[in-house]
Design goal:
alpha/beta; Rossmann fold; 5-stranded parallel β-sheet; 5 helices; 5 strands; globular; binds 1,3,4-trihydroxy-5-OXO-cyclohexanecarboxylic acid
Length: 152
Amino acid sequence: MQILLLNGPNLNMLGTREPAVYGHDTLDEIVKRVERRAFELGAEITACQSNHEGVLVDFIQQNQARAAGIIINPGAFGHYSYAIRDAVSGSTLPAVEVHISNVHAREAFRETMVLSAVCRGVITGLGWRGYIYALESLVASIEDKAEEKDKK
Ligand code: DQA
């Protein structure tokens, strides 16, 4: 089971970027933890970080046919990118949106969430572990669906 893991702009700076908000872990460390957990769950991660909207859209389009789900921290794109929303929605894959910080406890502009409505769920404010919870819930729901199909 392939899971796409997308990280948007400025998340490449994790570790040094506003550690009081985002913690001290680098994106590389976080992705490795997600990959390890995925392995335990019988899944595999295909990861992409980009500061460019179109690169994230291309990545979804190029990988959607062989993927079972999407975990995405869109960074600031989550607040205004209709292109990423349309790409996630168009893929028809189940998606979970992750934000490391609690976007609802911050500036008012972060209250606008244009991607969330096309995701199964949103995890915000639980730090890097949000990615792990997203993975666990995504894998469980994909397995549930497969079981339901088998029963029919
Ligand atoms: C973020 C929250 C966004 O509002 C912000 O623009 C980010 C990081 C988070 O993980 O908490 O870049 O997505």
